[in-house]
Structures are given as structure tokens and as C-alpha cells.
Design goal:
It contains five helices and four strands; from the N terminus they run βαβαββααα. With about 170 residues, the protein is an alpha+beta fold. A hairpin with a 2-residue loop joins strand 3 and strand 4. Bound molecules: glutathione.
Length: about 170
Amino acid sequence: MAYQLYYWPGLQGRGEFVRLALEAAGAPYTDVGRGEAAAGQGMPALLHCLQDPSAVRPPFACPVLVDGKLAIAQTAAILLYLGPRLKLVGASETDRIWTHQIQLTIADAVSEAHNTHHPVGVGLYYEDQKPEAAKVAKSFRTQRIPKFLGWLETVLERNPKGDKYLVGA
Ligand SMILES: N[C@@H](CCC(=O)N[C@@H](CS)C(=O)NCC(=O)O)C(=O)O
């Protein structure tokens, strides 16, 4: 059965991390938020997924991946689930947990990038926090991006199986 991805239509955002994995593996999936409401998809379906009052384990935010009866939120958790199923990660626990560490670090970078535009409040408009955003953006550019990218370069260089992939061959 095809996977269902629930993510905001019109932006790549964190949904893209899940799309990239599904696309790389050629896995069948429906990008529900980008579908037509008339076909039971689009925004109504997305909002239902996020706000379904009958969900015992409701997601906090999207992306959400649905596989049959299982609904998983949190990008890194979704990729932890998909990795072995799509054969995008090594079979050993060591490889899988290392890959997960890398993904969580990338998620930290994404969060910090988002924070550069919303340093005072996530719920406030960027226009209302421009001076603070400029300060945070400067330290993000000069300190944090180099640290994240430098670490990823090191991971590539130290991969014993070559520098094409972060983990394994
Ligand atoms: N840590 C979560 C963050 C999820 C998240 O912040 N999703 C955004 C879109 S990229 C959202 O819909 N946020 C709504 C909210 O936080 O209220 C993940 O990596 O999936």
C-alpha cells in the first residue's frame, strides 16, 4: 500500500526530507496536502490528520507519514522508520543509530535556520522581530552554519567506505 505524506502544500519545508527518501527509493506515496480536496486530499485532509479528535496519539505538527494504521510525526522519527524499509540505511544497529544521529543534527540545523527569522516568538511575524532576527542571522551565518557544515564534511571524510555518502557505501 502506498505511503501517505501529510505536509503543508506550497512549501518544501520539513516535508522535503521525507519526499527525498521516498523518491530516492522509488517508493509509492501520496502527497496528501498537494492533492485535490475533491479527491479526499488537500488542506481538509491535512487539517483532519492534525486535528482528528479521535486520534489516541495525535501528532504535534507535520510532516506526518501514514503507513496503514500507523501514523508517525517528527521528521527524524519518520526517517528512522523508513530507512530500513526503503533500504536507505545499513542493516546494522550501529549504522542505523549513527544515521539517526546525523539526521537529528540536520534537524537541529533546520530549527536554528528557522529561528533566525523568528527569534522572539515562533508565532510572531518576521516583520515584528527584524532587528533581533538580523542579530541571530549574523551569528548563524558566521558561527553555526560553518560548524554544522564543517561537521558534515568531517563525517564524509571519515567514512571508511568512501566520501560519496555520509554513512556506508
Ligand atoms: N521537530 C519537528 C518539527 C515539526 C514542525 O515544526 N513542523 C512545522 C512545519 S515544518 C509545523 O507545521 N509547525 C506547526 C507548529 O509547530 O505549530 C520535525 O522535525 O518534524
